[in-house]
Amino acid sequence: MFTGLLHLHSTLRYVILILILISIFQALSAGNKPYTATNKKINLFTLIGAHLQLVVGLVLYFMSPLVNFSQMSNPINRYWNVEHISMMLVSIVLITVGYSKSKKALEAKAKHRAIYIYYGIAVVVILVGILTMKDRNAWAV
Hints:
The chain has one domain. The chain is mostly helical and 141 residues long. It is elongated. The chain has helices spanning 2-30, 37-63, 75-104, 108-135. Helix content is 81%, strand content 0%. Helix 1 (2-30) packs across helix 4 (108-135), helix 2 packs antiparallel against helix 3 (75-104) and helix 3 (75-104) packs antiparallel against helix 4. The chain crosses the membrane at residues 12-30, 42-64, 84-102, 114-133. Keywords: Membrane, Transmembrane, Transmembrane helix. This is Cytochrome B.
């Protein structure tokens, strides 16, 4: 079960990154154009995908043999115990706040702006997390 969830989590990351980038591109290119049902659906699918990724990640976190708080001096263990989950939680909170602000905004321009700002910051946090993982050689675990 652990291996299957790990593969699902790894596959979903690419889906989420693609959805976030599509959402950001749509919001940036929209400008003053109306906020359409397609915009709303793409942004909602991004939100749902991010939350699904969170649930799968939390299940993996509590099942993982890598989560061991007694070895925090080891950079790889510290990455998986603290840094990875913290950065990904921050990015999911940003996606959620961005979607919520977009939903509550009255003007189309404000809706698009909320998406590209919050989703943009979220994708930067995700990419920093990925690059940090690569720097620590945490892929090898």
